[in-house]
Amino acid sequence: MGSSDIKLAEREGIIEAASSDRVKLTVTVLMFLLWLGIIFTTVMKYTMASDILSPLIVLCSVLIILRSGYTIGRYWTVTRWFMLGVAMWFVADVVWLFREYIFPGHYILDTISDNLYLVPDYMYLIGIVMYAKYRFYRRDFQMILAHVFILSVMVFIILSKILDLFTVQSIRFDADVIDSWMYFYATLFTMVSMIIICFKTGVKKHSFSFYGISVFLAIFNILECRYTFLKFMDKEPESDLMDIIYLLCMMAYGMMFSIPSLGSFEVSTGESSMTGSGAINKRRKMMYWIFSAILITISIVLYVVKFFSTANMSYAITAIFAYIVICKTIRENVLTDELLTRQKNETARLEQMVADKTRELSEMNDYLQKISNTDALTGLYNRRYGLEYFARLVKEPEHYPIALYSLDLNYFKPINDNYGHDMGDVVLKEVGRRLAGLGQERCTAIRIGGDEFLVIFRNASNDAAVNNMGALICERMDEPIEAVAEDEEKGRREHTFQISASIGVACFPSDTNDMETLFKMADDALYAIKHTHEKSAFLLYRNIQEVNTK
Prior knowledge:
Residues 5-15 and 262-280 have low confidence and may be disordered. This protein has helices spanning 3-43, 47-68, 76-102, 107-116, 119-135, 138-166, 175-201, 208-232, 240-258, 278-304, 310-373, 383-394, 413-419, 421-436, 463-478, 515-529, 544-549, and strands at residues 402-410, 443-449, 452-457, 481-487, 491-497, 500-508, 537-540. A hairpin with a 2-residue loop joins strand 2 (443-449) and strand 3. The strands form two sheets. A five-stranded mixed sheet has the order 2-3-1-6-7, sandwiched between helices. Helix 1 (3-43) runs antiparallel to helix 9. The chain contains 17 helices and seven strands. It is α+β, with helices and mostly antiparallel strands.
């Protein structure tokens, strides 16, 4: 994608975002106008108009949340559950309209609408739990759910006892009542969850959107508790003022989610709060035992003062012991995970150590193989490896014919005698460099020892190729050598040497198919040509008779 395409895509994204903002602003203004309209119609007792405006306001809130959800990032799941809750309220309002004005007194619609009004709280509960799941590490999230469980159960038992005291007649336990109790507990669970999340992270660790949603969710839950209480008291829970506040909560959800800052707060990093030093872990281990002891003490006191019945006491003790079991299970899982993590890290460390040692051994083996196969001074293959290499070549016909050049330097001994062995080593290094750089992939240079070398020329197809290679070697050997040697005693010394080489050549298999004989033939040709020329010269074994005759 070119830069122009990227800029075009950025402009399209900006235009789309601006368009989305305009749509949200338009729907928000419409929602507020509808809310003002429902206040007016409620005051003026236009009941039907109020009932029609109610689902329209909720629908606007759903649209706002839907348009805003994609800007929340990883908290889109939380947004989706709240959107579903508001949407269920919209569906409940629509069903209620059908029951009230189109099919008045219809039992099925009446049951459906009443149950649909209960669904949003369950959706909000799931949304809060999902928020905690994304906000905290898994271990902390599990402990938070355990704390919420025991606190909501204890509050539920106490409030249910208070409700029982205020109820004139005994509460019947049919399906509707059980649904109401479950709904009441879900409401408590949601409120306690928000409180513990704030307590766990600190007041300043959340965004404005979170607190706005929490406030209106708390108001909504308080209204739901009031509704449940009045219903158990056999009093009329419906109220025009309460309906307006309910709608205000629905509007607030849309407004808060339209602010793209739900996930902008600082996300905790580092290790889970359940890991760390042994002292901290021990203190945290004691916390739930102390908390459990406090709850048991409160339950006993309430039982002694005859506030709790035997049934209430058994419920509380059962819930507390369930809380202890849950906490212990979570802690055991934490320890198991820590052990597995340590074992995994240790295994990875050991595997890395083995890999490092294996690499070191491989590198050392390569180095040892290299120094055992090469001449330390020139870097060429040494005599042992060179002979092994040549023995492998003669077993592979695809390399035939093979020309073997046996090379011996002329006038080298005086260099060692007159200028020192260090200067002679410099000359040998330069000779090795020149032989290694013949520029032929088919050529391999070998140092036999002293001033003796071999050059193996594979696929020497004809005499012309053999002669050309011999001429090239002679040309390289005849080039003057600029030698520089340094030591502490003599200091830096520079000298130009003019050396030459005598070269004997034998071919395999045209001269012989025996390797030892081939080496002897090359040496014979070498000695035949040696000292017959001032400069470098080479002789093919097949031409040795001509030299001997002369």
